[in-house]
Amino acid sequence: MADDKNELGGLNPALEGEQKASITWDDANMQTAFANVVNIQGTREQVELFFGTNRSWNPAADAGLKVDLTNRMILTPFAAKRLNTILTNVLREYEARHGVLKTDDQK
């Protein structure tokens, strides 16, 4: 049974189809923050997500952007891939209801 769990105590992904684990979400220490800017960098061992708020409301007048970084989340590559899958599905549903979102690089 030692191989049933991964190094973080979760079920081994190879066994997820065989066993159903119950998850209890404890939000007692959860914090909420707003971000309208995100950046991502990755290495072989981890993926880092940086969140912040753009303070430059008129970039032409300010000659650049000022972003206050507020949070950094460090994920394992496996967790980052799961996040990517979940975000893709959520945004697909959002766009089906509300229309396509165009990012700056798509305009």
Order of helices and strands: EEHEH
Number of helices: 2
Calculate the terminal CA-CA distance, rounded to whole Å.
53 Å
Structural class: alpha+beta
Shape: extended
Can I get a quick summary?
The protein is an alpha+beta fold.
Structure description:
By secondary structure, the protein is an alpha+beta fold. It has a domain at 37-58 and 65-98. Helices cover 24% and strands 21% of the residues. The protein contains two helices and three strands, in the order E-E-H-E-H. It has helices at 59-62, 77-98; strands at 37-42, 47-54, 67-75. The protein has a three-stranded antiparallel sheet. Strand 1 (37-42) and strand 2 (47-54) form a beta hairpin. The protein is extended and about 60 Å long. The chain starts with 36 loop residues before the first strand and ends in a 9-residue tail after the last helix. The model has no long low-confidence stretch (mean pLDDT 85). Pfam families: DUF3467. InterPro entries: DUF3467 (IPR021857).
Main attributes of the structure:
107 residues; alpha+beta; 3-stranded antiparallel sheet; 3 strands; extended; DUF3467
SSE blueprint:
Layout: E1 37-42, E2 47-54, H1 59-62, E3 67-75, H2 77-98
Antiparallel strand pairs: 1-2, 2-3
